[in-house]
Amino acid sequence: MSGLTLTNISMRFDLANGAHVQALQDVSLDLRPGQLMSVLGPSGCGKSTLLNIVAGFLAPTAGRVALNGHAVTGPDAERGVVFQQGALFEWMNVRDNVSFGPRMAGQREAQFGPRVDHLIEVVGLQDFREKATYELSGGMQQRVALARCLANDPDVILMDEPLGALDALTREKMQAMILDLWKETGKTIILITHSVEEALLLGERLIVMAPRPGRIYKEYHLPFADQGVGQDLRQIKKRPDFAARREEILSMIWNMEEEIMGRQGDAA
Amino acid sequence: MTGLALLLVYAGLFAAAALVVKLIRRRTGQRKDFTSLKTVTFGDESAIRPDRAASVISILVVFVLWGAFTGSRLVPFHVPGPFIGETGFAYQARGADGRPTSGRVRVFAGIDAPADAAGDAVVASVPRGRDRLIPLPGGAQASAIDGTAIAPGGRVRVDHGTVSMTAKGTLGFAADEGLQMEPIWLPSPEAVAGRFVEIARTGYQNFSLWEHLGASLMRVLAGFALGSLVGIPLGYAMGLSGWFRGWFDPIVEFMRPVPPLALIPLVIIWFGIWETGKIVLLFLAALWVMTIAARAGVSGVNITKVHAAYSLGTSKWQLLRHVILPNSLPEIFTGARVAMGVCWGTVVAAELVAAQKGAGMMIIAASKFQLTDIVLMGIILIGIIGYAIDVLMRLAERKLVPWKGRG
Ligand SMILES: Nc1ncnc2c1ncn2[C@@H]1O[C@H](COP(=O)(O)OP(=O)(O)O)[C@@H](O)[C@H]1O
Ligand SMILES: [Mg+2]
């Protein structure tokens, strides 16, 4: 049993006022090693909750997560996480951030040094090694976060809207970088995003989630990620099959959002 | 009277300086941005920056006014001082035998009458700032002063002073006071500076100036160090453990609003008025501030950073050491700055109550002998040291936690 397996995951939050939110209901999923799956869905449909359960930050109220055959019971270095922002350690410089995982694992400079420096080069920050992280732009900070995650060589990388706070141009560059890194390292990746284009470009597999209760609504297997490696992503975006998929998914999410708004309108 | 004049002059100088600086700037043609035009920034307090010219002039004005109202040699102009010198007035009187007489009174105000002053005139010496009765020769009772009629209880203005008559009919003279302050109320800047030099050389009340100030500083450092030593771990424990938090929250929240000064009586009863009592008081003053700062530093950690660290494989202990501890340092520094300020204020107050040496002891001892110059000198030194402590703490903060507020 290799890969990531989610079996009948449910998550219910009990609120302070006695009500509860069914954030996830019976979510089951199999991810084979090396797969990049992107996750789309209207906000509040449980994407982050799902990711936090896989990361081990949350225990599901029902169901089971397993990686390579053993149960996930908490956060661990085998599952790296890249957050939207605010996860860097601003009291360390770029290099110390990237080497954080190996250092905590007790490795010595001689062991991790070359790999860490290589990763910093891969994300294009070789001139910023000694800089404090708060001196970097948002895009650079996310590249540090990515390198820090890779330095630990995790089996699975979980990304929760990693590019959500970046401007459009930086975002496009980072998408290409993620795609190349994925092919190069062969990591299993779950990528949450609220950009349909990003989900289509990067995910060889794509799930669309629906809210209340949070569940997998539709699943796609896409050719664009494979074709996009090393390519100009803009060319792919122009293709008619890409545009058709984009419109299909956009209107799907659009309808879900409409429904949510309508339901809130009824309640009011 | 003097107070009102001072206030008016101060307000006038404030407005005049603003006007002058504005004119100079207009002349020299300084660049105007939107902030200075207040077109888009009015109402945005964060756009207000202190005008450094105003700060410099403000300090100058304080010294100039101080000098002008105390007759300082350092300031070229003064408000009118008390009259010092010779003056006099003519009188008409009725002798004990009922015969009218007349004559002159020569008054020497604030100076000694020369030995050969006597002659036809009545001679009176009036010390500075006092008034004096002037009995007329032969027990005569005055009826007019410089041609103006006077009766018992009345008063007449003469050159450089006022002549008054008591109920029993004796004349008195008071020289004009002017607007200047007497040294006993407010000594001149050079008097204070002179005292500083003198006390820096010879000490005061059995201890050198440096021993006095050093004693206060040492107490503050000892109290602050002890308070941090207990407060920071306690704050960490409260931030990390619900039991600690629950147990100590009531105590901390109760003790926090109690001003350290209110503890002085109890501390004196328990630990005595000398060194132990003071250190305990300062320990308590620093303790709650540091506890709360450390607690806030721990609970203020962004959960994302904690998650990130765990996903990178940290143990609980490593998380504490490499994430929670450095993340809390900015809060701890802010707390340390507050605690040092509170401790410095508290130590001076505690020394006012009882001490053999210390900055507070110096000024309270001097005030008992009305040595206002020493009192002022002490206050200025206390202010400077307090300010220096804060500046040093801020420098250290910038050096040691440069990431403060930039996470
Ligand atoms: N800790 C929590 N306590 C209560 N409700 C929560 C909590 N976390 C998430 N939720 C709720 O669960 C639902 C899913 O949230 P989330 O997973 O953050 O959605 P998404 O990431 O897709 O926008 C939302 O309705 C949210 O309000
Ligand atoms: Mg989310």
Report on this model:
- The complex is a heterodimer of chains A (268) and B (407).
- Chain A is an alpha/beta fold and 268 residues long.
- Chain A has a domain at 89-152.
- Chain A has helices at residues 47-55, 94-98, 100-104, 109-122, 138-151, 168-185, 196-202, 224-228, 233-238, 240-267, and strands at 4-14, 20-31, 36-40, 62-67, 70-71, 79-82, 156-160, 188-192, 205-210, 215-221.
- In chain A, strand 9 (205-210) and strand 10 (215-221) form a beta hairpin.
- The longest helix of chain A has 28 residues, at 240-267.
- The termini of chain A are far apart.
- The mean pLDDT of chain A is 89.
- Chain B has three domains: 2-70, no CATH class; 85-175, no CATH class; 190-400, MetI-like (MetI-like fold).
- Helix content of chain B is 56%, strand content 12%.
- Chain B is elongated, with a radius of gyration of 32 Å.
- At the A-B interface, strand 6, helix 3 and helix 5 of A face helix 9 and helix 10 of B.
- Adenosine-5'-diphosphate (ADP) binds next to strand 2 and helix 1 of chain A.
- Kindly report the average pLDDT value of chain B: 88
Contiguous runs where pLDDT drops below 50 for at least 5 residues of chain B: none
User: What's the CATH superfamily of the largest domain in chain B, by name?
Assistant: MetI-like
SSE series of chain A:
EEEHEEEHHHHEHEHEEHHH
The main sheet of chain B orders its strands as 3-2-1-5-6
- What bound compounds does this protein have? adenosine-5'-diphosphate, magnesium ion
| Major protein interface | A-B, 29 and 23 residues
Shape of chain B: elongated
Based on the structure, what is the oligomeric state of the protein chains? heterodimer
Q: Overall 3D geometry of chain A?
A: globular
CATH architecture of the largest domain in chain B: Orthogonal Bundle
| Structure class of chain B | alpha+beta
Low-confidence stretches of chain A: none
Helix content of chain B: 55-70%
Q: How many strands of chain A?
A: 10
